[in-house]
From TrEMBL:
Protein family membership: Belongs to the carnitine/choline acetyltransferase family.
SUPFAM superfamilies: CoA-dependent acyltransferases (SSF52777)
Stated name of the protein: Carnitine O-palmitoyltransferase 1, muscle isoform
Source organism: Colobus angolensis palliatus (Peters' Angolan colobus)
Enzyme class: transferase
Length: 756
């Protein structure tokens, strides 16, 4: 336990001669440097808070206003229209700093200038908020921008042109509007019309009208009231009731995974890859803390909300019997590491200095070389985070609320993130399609006890240097973790680099204390709970069929030639594939069930010519894009109905319409994975620097989970999940249907394809 003693600043021994103190200069140095670093961070946050608070103003702009006011006064021009004189008369009389007329005049001008400056900032912010409430640009055809939208874009650029920090626009973003109940119900009925026969639709229509006329007005008033004081009337309820109150295991049901670059490999050395990667992650966290990351901007001009980024690091989902809680710390100086059934605490800093990649490589190699066996109950301990939430909450209270177990658990939960060092090797071999699916399965659930599913994310490292992430979903959506991952992979490949032998550049510091083993005292009763949670998680993991594949015939380059959006093209292909899965259509094209009525005739057996089918396709694509844009502007269906349902429960009001709508299973849950959120490199010059995206488990027991990433001009990655226990689903078969649907849609437009 030498490393533990090195962390103690002083020790004392009581002897007959008195108390003998022994100080550790090295430990005291670390404590001192840690304190200095902490104060630096506080000062940076104070400075950023001030700069963010006055955006789009700045201290320089304040000085300009003050100098302009004083200059005009010396030229005998009163720009204040008498206000400076009023301020001067209101200043206290007598001795002190106000005793001379010159001082009083200067102070009055400074006060007036500050008032003008603050008022201008408020005016600019409100003007920007009003401008950002305009959504007409989203509904205009590509290349057909109206004059109104051009003027709007110029005004937005003008008000947001001064180098913003990450959270500069937060107070200027408009609140999420509450849609009209009539509009939401109309869009809902339109979306389900193709799914229901005439009798079923008439029944649903009657339920909807009854709800709209009798129950909805009262519920809507509460939502409108909430929207007045909350910036987003949905987000807190969605986080609590969709995620944190869920009592089912996180593994497969909630957590999702993200893959590494799959067509290139920077190094085969596991510890070296971790050294560069974790150094890049903490560099990103430093930028995040200092708000040096640019806000994500739609079209390069419309700022998006950055709130979810706040909880990316130092965050853990803590289990509760009724609801979980997201615990977020302002800082953490270590990561928790799992390897061969042992848990370690690895410091990221030496004093106030972030460890360099070569130092981190050395520390991880020390863990890999550590021959010590797991302690009793330690190996499968993380299975508690993979089992039921109630069981985990009870075990946490009973066995981890005191002593060494509490200290060890806190070391994990208070870590910046979790790192899993696997002994297996996974990678994508284009000649072996199954390799991508096996890689995805390892990231989704591992062996059910080598991931800490409660952490905001687990960095997974395989023996061959391949990496991946397993992310908890409650704290943020996938694009947020994707933003981090793009930065990390770009920094690893183009800024840090490796030696010819695959190690990190530079020489490590061998004097660094080794990582510290966490100590546990896990009784037999707790071990039984761990085993029970493991069996629950293993049953879930074994039931998941995951089929991942790279679609090579074409990508967004060809889709654009079809004069439609790539997302709409893929979504329609998914609906076509889902329709065909049970053999409902004998021809090459079928209807798109959730995409309104225009899709009903897209079946060759229906007798349509290609021109007619293309027209139906364009109508369906246009409808999809319109619904997608409405959802982006806050006029989506599910969030509004969900909140109305919650209000009805709070008020004890029964609604057959809401109960039926929210009980409908989502048998096809899809998600597009964004890419190139950060321009770390030119994809045209480095076409093989492609990630394969990521995936998630099926939402319904008899359904599919499909995620896809349109990875450049010539390829698309798909991740299809289902359950073996359902006789209705087969992930690989559905994946093949997706392939064929994409090809059939391309044939509609007679666009030549590359080799498949």
């Amino acid at each position: 336990m030498a490393e533990a003693h090195q962390a103690v600043a002083f020790q004392f021994t009581v002897t007959p001669d008195g108390v003998d103190f022994r100080l550790s200069r090295e430990a005291l140095k670390h404590v001192y440097l840690s304190g200095i670093n902490s104060w630096k961070k506080r000062l940076i946050r104070i400075k950023n808070g001030i700069l963010r608070g006055v955006y789009p103003g700045s201290p320089t702009s304040w000085l300009v206003v003050v100098m302009a006011t004083m200059g005009s006064s010396f030229c005998n021009v009163d720009v204040s229209l008498g206000l400076i004189g009023c301020i001067q008369r209101c200043l206290p009389q007598g001795c002190g700093p106000y005793q001379t007329p010159q001082t009083r005049a200067l102070l009055s001008m400074a006060i007036f200038s500050t008032g003008v400056w603050v008022t201008s900032i408020f005016f600019f912010r409100q003007t920007l908020k009003l401008l950002l409430s305009y959504h007409g640009w989203m509904f205009e055809m590509h290349g057909k921008t109206s004059n109104l939208t051009r003027i709007w874009a110029m005004c937005v650029r003008l008000l947001s042109s001064r180098h913003p920090m990450l959270y500069s626009f937060q107070t200027s973003l408009p609140k999420l509007p509450v849609p009209r109940v009539s509009a939401t119900i109309q869009r809902y009925l339109e979306s389900v019309r193709p799914l229901l026969d005439d009798e079923e639709y008439y029944r649903m229509e009657m339920l909807a009208k009854e709800f709209q006329n009798k129950t909805a007005p009262r519920l809507q008033k509460y939502l409108v009231l909430k929207s007045w004081w909350a910036s987003n009337y949905v987000s807190d309820w969605w986080e609590e009731y969709i995620y944190l109150r869920g009592r089912n295991p996180l593994v497969v049901n909630s957590n999702y995974y993200v893959m590494d670059l799959v067509l290139i490999k920077n190094t085969d050395v596991q510890a070296a890859r971790l050294g560069n990667t974790i150094h890049a992650m903490i560099m990103y966290r430093r930028k995040l803390d200092r708000e040096e990351i640019k806000p994500v901007m739609a079209l390069g001009i419309v700022p998006m909300c950055s709130y979810q980024m706040e909880r990316m690091f130092n965050t853990t989902r803590v289990p509760g019997k009724e609801t979980d809680v997201l615990q977020h710390l302002s800082d953490s100086r270590h990561v928790a590491v799992y390897h061969k059934g042992r848990f370690f605490k690895l410091w990221l800093y030496e004093g106030s200095r972030l460890l360099k990649p070569q130092d981190l490589e050395m520390q991880f190699q020390r863990i890999l070389d550590d021959p010590s066996p797991p302690q009793p109950g330690e190996e499968k301990l993380a299975a508690l985070t993979a089992g039921g939430r109630v069981e985990w909450a009870q075990a946490r209270q009973a066995f981890f609320s005191s002593g060494k177990n509490k200290a060890a658990l806190e070391a994990i939960e208070r870590a910046a993130f979790f790192v899993a060092l696997d002994e297996e090797s996974y990678h994508y071999d284009p000649e072996d399609e199954a390799s991508l699916s096996l890689y995805g399965k390892a990231l989704l659930h591992g062996n059910c006890y080598n991931r800490w599913f409660d952490k905001s994310f687990t960095l997974i490292s395989f023996k061959n240097g391949q990496l991946g992430l397993n992310a908890e979903h409650a704290w943020a959506d996938a694009p947020i973790i994707g933003h981090l991952w793009e930065f990390v992979l770009g920094t690893d490949s183009f800024h840090l680099g490796y030696t010819e032998t695959g190690h990190c550049l530079g020489k490590p510091n061998p004097a660094l204390p080794p990582p510290m083993r966490l100590q546990w005292d896990i009784p037999k009763q707790c071990q039984a709970v761990i085993e029970s949670s493991y069996q629950v998680a293993k049953a879930l993991a074994d039931d998941v069929e995951l089929y991942c594949f790279q679609f090579l015939p074409f990508g967004k380059g060809l889709i654009k030639k079809c004069r439609t959006s790539p997302d709409a093209f893929v979504q329609i292909a998914l609906q076509l594939a889902h329709f065909r899965r049970a053999g409902w259509c004998q021809g090459p094209l079928a209807r798109f069930t959730p995409l309104y009525i225009p899709g009903q005739g897209l079946c060759a057996g229906y007798g349509g010519e290609k021109a007619d089918l293309r027209d139906l396709f364009q109508k369906a694509a246009k409808k999809h894009q319109n619904m997608y844009r409405l959802a982006m502007t806050g006029a989506g269906i599910d969030r509004h109905l969900f909140c109305l349902y919650l209000v009805s429960k709070y008020l004890g009001v029964s609604s057959p319409f809401l109960a039926e709508v929210l009980s409908e299973p989502w048998r096809l849950s899809t998600s597009q994975i964004p890419q190139s959120q950060i321009r770390m490199f030119d994809p045209e010059q480095h076409p093989n620097h492609l990630g394969a995206g990521g995936g998630f488990g099926p939402v319904a027991d008899d359904g599919y989970g499909v995620s896809y990433m349109i990875a450049g001009e010539n390829t698309i990655f798909f991740h299809v999940s289902s359950k073996f226990s359902s006789s209705e689903t087969n992930a690989q078969r559905f994946g093949n249907h997706i392939r064929q649907a994409l090809l059939d849609l391309a044939d509609l437009f007679q666009v030549p394809k590359t080799n498949s």
